[in-house]
């Protein structure tokens, strides 16, 4: 047997051994599992009745990150100030606001033309799943605190 053949046979044996040990090892646990996410469709309200936007929610145990993207509202002061609120109930029957996220209210315009605002609501996933809630987007005080968009949260 020449040296090249013996080296190839050795490499094949090593590869086979590594594959056998890899098959026996349990899969490594993901050190940071991704939190559950949800998308909420937001229907426009006067003066944005014919428009629709959306929100992406990242659900955590004690808070919920919210990214709202909506078309511009006619007649609003620019730059747009968007206030996000979480209400008990549904958009058809808004209950009291359970959370308000006013840390970031200044919307910024995306290349797509949508206005975006990101916030964290101090309400966790279990609370949102326990009863009906709605996400409301309102204009700033300079524009009369108008309800611009609303979407019902349907979390399971």
Summarize the structure.
By secondary structure, the chain is of the alpha+beta class.
Structure description:
This protein is α+β, with helices and mostly antiparallel strands and 156 residues long. 18% of the residues lie in helices and 41% in strands. It has 2 helices and 9 strands. It has helices spanning 3-24, 125-130, and strands at 37-44, 52-59, 64-70, 82-90, 93-101, 108-109, 115-121, 133-139, 147-153. A 9-stranded antiparallel β-sheet has the order 5-4-8-9-1-2-3-7-6, with no helix packed on it. Strand 8 and strand 9 form a beta hairpin. The chain is globular, with a radius of gyration of 25 Å.
- Give the radius of gyration: 25 Å
- Our count of helices gives 2
- Please indicate the percent range of residues in DSSP E strands (runs of 2 or more): 35-45%
What distance separates the N and C termini?
66 Å
